[in-house]
Amino acid sequence: MTKCVEELGGVLSQQHYQPRLSMTSLDYKPGPVGGRPATRSRLPRYSLGTPSRRWIDLHLGNIILSLAAGRRVRVLDLGCNDGAYHTFLESTGLVGSYVGVDIEPSPEWSRASSAARDLSAHFLVHDAHEIAALRPSGFDLVVAITTFEHFKDDERVLDGVAQQLLPGAHLVMIVPSEFSYALYGPHGYRRYKLAETARRLQARRLEVVRAERIGGVPSFVSHAVWFNSSRIFTLAGKAALGVLAGFSRPRAKRWFGALDTSLNDAMFWHQRFAIGRAAHSLANEALASIDIMVPGLPALYLFVAKKPF
């Protein structure tokens, strides 16, 4: 099994899909989709993302299109948040219907639904742990992009996904690796291992057709330094404000409200300026290229699993 998983690695790095709509670029101007202007994705201000998100930008579209194979598909987005992946999926040329589910509603859902063209959008408040009960049932494609780590009982969710997949349908899942604690801190309930996760998919009679490491040593080190140094700066800054306010954090929040709040986004301060955004983008490009030469310490894992006919 482990040998099989190892042999699956490296395939996607040879592809050259260029997405019309970036999931991480702040100032990206979407191109036309089917002759119509694409809808800009609503993403966090100043956040151009990490090297691993850049990898997703470049390759996720190819994966989705290869699975759709030019046919109409019914898509389930598990943990859809504000529905940004609907915009991304439609921008790749995917045609059919999309159902996004999340535990809480988003004000962006109505915008995404009204802007949908070739991929109709429907959003539901629904607990992923009860995904097996979703009706109408049956999907050609289920996507779960960095969401499984947020499900308390991911075994139950995976059982439900396996039930919702139609024969011949695919699950595309991206999860944080066992190394990612150094990059994201205490994020979600768990981290994942490549071979172990592949076995869990197979235990549900799903065929693992892709298992991919996302990232490498250069991007891992860069991301870890960026994340942790920013975190230290934030904590030190808040401590200093507390001292200036007479060793009182509540008073510091009152006296230095805007400055205190801005420290929460210290890691994105450089993206307030055009030169900072340009430097961030160039660094991501460079790190992605070097990662190929120095693999190891992946930030994320990608899995594509198929339900047999």
Q: Report the β-strand fraction as a percent range.
A: 15-25%
Give the biggest beta sheet: 7 strands, mixed
Number of strands: 9
What name is given to the CATH topology of the largest domain? Rossmann fold
Question: Which stretches are poorly predicted, pLDDT < 50 over at least 5 residues?
Answer: 1-47
CATH superfamily of the largest domain: Vaccinia Virus protein VP39
Radius of gyration, Cα only, in angstroms?
Answer: 20 Å
What is the CATH C-level name of the largest domain? Answer: Alpha Beta
Give the overall shape: globular
Instruction: Please tally the helical runs, counting DSSP H or I stretches of 4 or more residues.
Output: 11
Oligomer: single chain
Helix content: 40-55%
Order of helices and strands: HEEHEHEHEEHEHHEHHHHE
Cα-to-Cα separation, first versus last residue: 22 Å
CATH second-level architecture of the largest domain = 3-Layer(aba) Sandwich
Rounded average pLDDT: 83
Structural class: alpha/beta
Polypeptide structure, described:
With about 300 residues, the chain is α/β, with parallel strands linked by helices. The chain has two domains: about 1-215 and about 290-305, Rossmann fold, CATH 3.40.50.150; about 220-280, no CATH class. It is built from eleven helices and nine strands. The longest helix is centred in the C-terminal third of the chain and has 28 residues, at about 215-245. The chain has helices at about 1-10, 50-70, 85-90, 110-115, 155-165, 180-185, 195-205, 215-245, 250-255, 255-260, 275-295, and strands at about 30-35, 35, 75-80, 95-100, 120-125, 140-145, 165-175, 205-215, 295-305. α8 crosses α9 (about 250-255) and α8 (about 215-245) packs antiparallel against α11. About 40% of the residues lie in helices and about 20% in strands. The strands form two sheets. The chain has a seven-stranded mixed beta sheet. A two-stranded antiparallel ribbon has the order 1-2.
